[in-house]
Design a protein that fits this description.
Oligomer: single chain
Distance between the termini: 42 Å
Strand content: 5-15%
Number of helices: 13
Order of helices and strands: EHEHEEEEHEHHHHHHHHHH
Largest sheet: 7 strands, mixed
Number of strands: 7
Structural class: alpha/beta
Length: 344
């Protein structure tokens, strides 16, 4: 029996990494199974989260161009059908092309879940007698939360730290100086726990707001349709959650470093004698807490970003703009080649 040629077309970055690990994908075991010959192509085949039909058409064009029997597209974008439901998968009625939304898998055990989903899709399309549904919608309530979690985890917010490196260094320098400042000792000692907590929330919020404004990360709807507004809300929510996680990671790193510095250079007895009160090492934890909040604002807002690309890569709206630009450039290139061929 001749092998079935299967094409995997993946969006750049994470979807391509996942697809490249499926080169050895094999069919479910059975007496009449045919082997699968899998090819992987990295290309931004998706343009908008609502245009599922357009994505399917592009995948079918890939299948015709490469001579594939079946094709599956892997995208990190949310997919919506005509009725507004978010989708996990969508298969064209002819059963030759399908698209899988990776964030709809939920973000956990992504590689294993994606591999299982692709095997099920290819197996269903290869079986002419299969009666699998042409689409798999997500639950209306829980599905949106699952999709949002998948989008945030796909952003890998912990990798924002390199993009905030210069701001983090500036914050560390600010904190090192503030830790040995007697005025800061007085301020830290006068603040209650709830005020320190408010200062933490305010400092994180200010830095996140600065990143959104400075990096122009806020997505605006392409038009006034409910679908476009819903997509922008989803993109912006995932961006804010991603940035908050990334900034909180930096804040915790800053707190740990400031605490280690305070424990190394400060003597609570000397501080207590200067302030006219009895202090212990526990007070250094409160001091480091206050310094971390002040240094986050002073260092984060007073310093430029190490790499705008590192921050923008963590937002769906900017990655979508890059896909559109790459897709438009690829189309212009193909039209130019066809024009030169006709002239030749």
């Amino acid at each position: 029996m001749d092998p079935i040629r299967v094409g995997l077309v993946a969006d750049p970055a994470s979807p391509t990494e996942i697809a490249q690990q499926m080169g050895d994908l094999d069919p479910p075991r059975g007496p009449d199974r045919a082997t699968w010959d899998v090819d992987v192509v990295s290309e931004p085949f998706t343009v908008g989260s609502e245009e599922v039909g357009t994505a399917i058409d592009r995948l079918a064009e890939h299948a015709s161009r490469h001579g594939w029997d079946l094709v599956v597209g892997l995208t990190e974008l949310p997919l919506r059908d005509d009725d507004g439901r978010y989708l996990l998968t969508k298969v064209d009625p002819g059963g030759r092309a399908a698209v899988l939304s990776l964030p709809a898998l939920g973000g956990l055990r992504m590689h294993a879940r994606a591999r299982h989903a692709v095997r099920e899709l290819v197996g269903g399309m290869a079986d002419a007698t299969s009666s699998d549904d042409e689409r798999v919608p997500l639950p209306r309530v829980r599905g949106r939360g699952r999709l949002l979690v998948g989008m945030v985890l796909a952003n890998r917010p912990w990798l924002l730290v390199p993009g905030l490196k210069s701001a983090l260094v500036a914050a560390l320098a600010t904190g090192a100086v503030a830790t040995i400042n007697s005025t800061v000792w007085l301020l830290a000692g006068s603040l209650s726990t709830w005020r320190l907590a408010v200062a933490t929330v305010a400092s994180v919020a200010l830095v996140v707001g600065w990143l959104v404004v400075d990096g122009q990360l806020w997505d605006r709807p392409d038009d006034s349709s409910p679908e476009a507004r819903e997509r922008s809300r989803l993109y912006n929510t995932s961006t804010l959650v991603t940035l908050v996680i990334g900034v909180v990671v930096c804040y915790l790193m800053l707190y740990v470093v400031n605490l280690a510095w305070a424990l190394f250079v400060l003597d609570p007895a000397v501080m207590g004698g200067y302030l006219g009160s009895t202090l212990g090492y526990g007070d250094l934890f409160l001091l480091s807490w206050f310094v971390a909040s002040a240094a986050t604002v002073g260092g984060g807002l007073g310093s430029g970003l190490e790499s705008d690309d590192a921050i923008r890569a963590a937002t769906y709206s900017k990655r979508e703009e890059e896909r559109r630009a790459r897709l438009a450039g690829g189309r212009r290139g193909r039209r130019g080649r066809r024009g030169r061929e006709r002239q030749g």
